[in-house]
Design a protein that fits this description.
Elements lengths: L15 E2 L4 H4 L20 E6 L3 H10 L6 E6 L2 E9 L2 H15 L3 E5 L21 E5 L6 H10 L4 E5 L2 E9 L2 H13 L4 E5 L4 E4 L6
Parallel strand pairs: 1-5
Antiparallel strand pairs: 2-4, 2-5, 3-4, 6-8, 6-9, 7-8, 7-10
Length: 212
């Protein structure tokens, strides 16, 4: 059995641990008896682990994530984490790991099942700011249903971005300032709270939001 112990200072945003190491990493004792040992990922599933000890933080995490992603408290080595399952795409899990690490300030990392020997190499997640222009951002106040309402109003897919260390829905990215202001006015008339900003200051997390 490998003597590998968890050290939160060595966590990187996109650390991926194969399932073959799972039995070596999980210790038989549990630091907090109220939390069960975290279950490993299913085949072709990616898990997001977020370190937190507070129930209030857990509720905030649940409110931020898409509601269809199952979450629960569990024990990973000496730490209590929020286990987020249901990711079928590595880039989606990595995007949320980066968000919680860099924007929220919580340590987060990704776990994956053992990849097939002949599985193709997955692309690395490299978030970048939007290109020059104007971005129309909508505040969704941690209410996922707003994304669906926004999509119905604008008739196109809605993206998820961060701006000034806060998450927003991306309603429009354009190089036309008049178009951006017109879209903002349209959304304001429909009751949405939005802003127009320099798109170079906006970081794209996901081009098509998963909220339902």
């Amino acid at each position: 059995m490998l003597g590998i112990r968890f050290n939160r200072r060595l966590i990187f945003s996109f650390l991926i641990i194969p399932l073959t190491l799972w039995s070596n990493l999980v210790e038989p004792t549990i630091a907090q008896p109220t939390a069960s040992v975290c279950q490993p990922p299913r085949k072709d599933e990616y898990l997001l682990f977020i370190l937190t000890q507070a129930k209030a933080t857990y509720e905030d995490i649940r409110a931020t994530l898409p509601p269809q992603l199952p979450t629960n408290f569990c024990q990973y080595l000496d730490d209590t984490v929020v286990r987020v399952g249901g990711f079928n795409q590595l880039l989606d899990a990595q995007g949320w790991a980066r968000y919680f690490n860099e924007i929220v300030g919580l340590s987060a990392f990704v776990i994956q099942a053992t990849p097939s020997r002949n599985a193709p190499r997955l692309p690395e997640y490299k978030p970048e700011p939007l290109a020059d222009g104007y971005a129309v951002l909508v505040d969704y106040f941690s209410q996922p249903e707003i994304a669906s309402e926004l999509r119905q109003v604008i008739g196109t897919d809605v993206g998820l971005v961060t701006y000034a260390q806060r998450p927003y829905l991306l309603a429009l990215h354009t190089q036309n300032e008049r178009e951006a202001n017109s879209k903002l006015q349209q959304l304001s008339d429909r009751g949405f709270i939005g802003i127009v900003v320099d798109s170079r200051s906006v970081i794209l997390i996901r081009p098509v939001v998963l909220f339902e």
